[in-house]
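Input (Lon N-terminal domain-containing protein):
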Amino acid sequence: KYTHMFESIIRSNPDRKSWYVGHLFLPGGSKTLDSKTDDSNSGNFRLSGWKDAKKLSIFDDSGGITQRSAVIGTLLRIVDFRRMNDGKLLLLVQALERFVVVRARQETPFSIADVQIIPDEEEVEWQQQYFSSINESITKTEFFTDAVAESFRWHEYEYDERVRLSVRNDEKDDLRSTDISGVDLKRILPFVPYSSTSSPKHIIGQRNKREAVPVNNMNRPEDEILLQIKEAGMLREVPTLSLEDLIGNRSLTTDHLEKSIWIFIDKYLRIKEMPYMPEELLGLLPPNQSWPTGFCLEKLANSKLLENRVPSKKFFRVTNDYPAHRRQKRLSFAASSLLEPSRIDGLRQSMLEIPSTRGRLWSVLEKFEIYHIKNKIDEKSNRQ
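Output:
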C-alpha cells in the first residue's frame, strides 16, 4: 500500500528534485487499517478532517481515552530514494512543517486530504510585530498566511536539500539490504543539516523584498484556525505551563526555557556518559550567552569550530542574524531526540500537538528534570 503511494508520488513527476507527502500518527500503524475487526471504534482510525474528528467520543466504553488517527501531522519532503530488489523503496525524508487535516479526499488505495499548515504561535506573533514595526496594516488572516510563507522561505537555509543517501546509486533498482550500512545511515539521521550554500542574511534579504502573499479562496486559511483547533482539543498547551501562567510566573520566557534546556542537556550528557553529542544539535547552542561554571557544551562547540575540516564537513553553528524564534522552534523538536522517544509513549505526537515553541521547550525541560530526579533516586538507592 505505502510502496504504491510513494511510487505514485515519485512517478507523477520524476524530474523533480523532491516530493512532498503528509504523515499522520495511527495507533497500531498500518495493521490497524488492515484489521477486519467490527470494533465500534474502527471509524476512529479512518482519515478525517479535524471538525469531524472532534465529534468522535473522547472516551471509550471502559472510560479510557479513545485511540484514533491523529489529525495533526507532519509535512515531509522526499529528497532521495532507492528502489530495492524486492520492490520496496528506501526513502530519505525531511520533516518540514506540521499541518492539520481539513478534509479527507480519498481513502483507497491510499489517503489523500486537504491540509492546512499550522505555524507555532510565536511565528504568527513575530509577523504581527514585524508588520507593526514597518507600520503596515494587514488582517489576521494575512498574519497567519505570511507566517506560513515566512517558514517556507527559511526551508532553503534550514534544510539542506543536497543531502543524499550514502548507498549505491546506479539506477539498477536492485538495492539489497546488505548494500545498506547502518554507519552510513547514522551520518544523515536523525537530524537535517543546515544548508552551507544559503545564509540568514540571504533569507532576510528575500523577506525585505517580499511582496504580499496572495490569498485566494482556494488557499485562504480559516479565520482563527489556531484558536479553533485549540478549542477542539486538537492542539493542547502543556497543563503545568498553563498553571504557571495562571499563577503569574513571568520568568518562564522562551529565552529562559531555551537556556535551561541547554543546561540540562549538559548535565544529561554527563550523567549518561554519552561520548557523542550530535553536531546538528550542538550547532543550535545560542551564541553570546553566559553559562554556569562547569558548562561544557560551549567549549565543545568552540573547539569544533576550530577543527580543520573539508568545507562540506565543517561544524555549523547558528549565528546572531538567525532569528531566535526559528532557532528555538528547531531546538524544541530536536532536543527530545536525546530522551529516547521510543521509550516515551506518544512523545513525538504530543510534541506536534503543542501549539507553541514555548510549550514544547517547557515539555522537554520537564522530561529532562524527571530524568535528573530519577537518576538521583537511583544513585541514592545504589548507595544504600
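Residues 214-218 have pLDDT under 50 and may be disordered.
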